[in-house]
Automatic annotation (TrEMBL):
Residue ranges annotated for the HTH lysR-type domain, each copy included: 1-59
GO CC list: cytosol
Stretches of the chain forming a coiled coil according to its record: none
Alphabetized GO MF terms: DNA binding; DNA-binding transcription factor activity
Similarity comment: Belongs to the LysR transcriptional regulatory family.
Species: Desulfobacca acetoxidans
Gene3D superfamilies: Periplasmic binding protein-like II (3.40.190.10), Winged helix-like DNA-binding domain superfamily/Winged helix DNA-binding domain (1.10.10.10)
Keywords carried by this UniProt record: DNA-binding, Transcription, Transcription regulation
Protein name: LysR family transcriptional regulator
Length: 295
């Protein structure tokens, strides 16, 4: 088994296509096909099945071998980083993804301080939805992702970070803002601004489950994946919305909003750092986490 075969198969499995894998590895499709066939002959089993002209899928053996290649490549990258640190000049890449609001409000200090401490480390920061963050961590495309602890799948490692609470957003003079506690029946009476269903928002799922449980009709007047945009149109009177916010954290700009706790419907939750369980954390990555948790 050769190193190039491991890398080639890994990219074919990861990209789901010989064509895309060839672009990533700077090889021809025929060369990749030959490498995969050589692996299958050596291992004595099929790793990839072709479906039609362009699609492919991994066999059960292929899935297991893909997990093996992922672990091998992760170990290799970790070793390279450790050897660089031994030379006294840590150099590598740190890849992070989080939703917009989290990046905007909670990462300014870290992303100002860290590059000064590690100028040779290449930072790659992605603004992604929670669902996309989880997928990126699972696939090994990023080192760390930020998501709600309650949304984290069991196959990922979770490091609890900041406590959050679910709140209802209304204009300050809204009828709901005058109530000591808001009920789901009262929420359903007003137009709603919600995240798209495609994002699998924990808050939206919680709210809609309550509506179904009570048999309530409701109207969504706007869908937005950006809490800042939603809060703007709440302020303008288009509808009411909700957000999962770090306790005590204000939204961007001079928004005139009421923040109504919904803790009686949504239990305590936390923002968490997600990473693969087989992730090798180099020294400069651990320093990033230390800086993050220190704040």
């Amino acid at each position: 088994m050769e190193w190039q075969q491991i890398v080639g198969f890994h990219q074919v499995a990861r990209q789901g296509s010989f064509t895309k894998a060839a672009e990533v590895t700077f090889r021809t499709q025929s060369a990749l096909s030959q490498q995969v066939r050589a692996l299958e002959e050596e291992l004595g089993c099929r790793l990839i099945e072709r479906i039609g002209k362009r699609r492919l899928r991994l066999t059960e053996a292929g899935e297991r071998f893909f997990r093996f290649t992922r672990a091998v490549l992760s170990s290799y990258e970790g070793l390279r980083e450790e050897l660089q640190e031994l030379q006294g000049s840590p150099a590598g890449e740190l890849r992070l993804a989080a939703p917009f609001t989290t990046l905007y409000h909670l990462f300014r200090r870290v992303l100002q301080a860290y590059p000064r401490r590690y100028p040779q480390v290449r930072l790659s920061i992605l603004d992604r939805s929670q669902r996309e963050v989880i997928d990126l961590v699972r696939q090994g495309d990023i080192d760390f992702g930020i998501a709600l602890e309650s949304a984290a799948p069991r196959d990922l490692a979770v490091r609890r970070w900041r406590e959050v609470e679910m709140v209802l957003l209304t204009p300050p003079d809204h009828p709901l803002a005058r109530l000591p506690q808001v009920t789901v029946e009262e929420i359903a009476r007003y137009p709603l601004i919600l995240p798209p269903r495609s994002q699998r928002s924990t808050g939206r799922r919680t709210l809609e489950a309550l509506f179904r449980e009570k048999g309530l009709d409701y109207r969504v007047v706007m869908e937005s994946s950006n809490v800042e945009l939603s809060s703007l149109y709440v302020e303008l009177g288009l509808g009411i919305s909700f957000a999962t916010l770090v306790k005590g954290l204000a939204l961007t700009g001079p928004r005139s909003l009421a923040f109504i706790p919904l803790s009686h419907y949504a239990g305590p939750d936390f923002l968490a750092v997600l990473l693969r369980k087989d992730k090798i954390i180099s020294g400069y990555m651990q320093d990033f986490l230390d800086l993050l948790f220190a704040g």
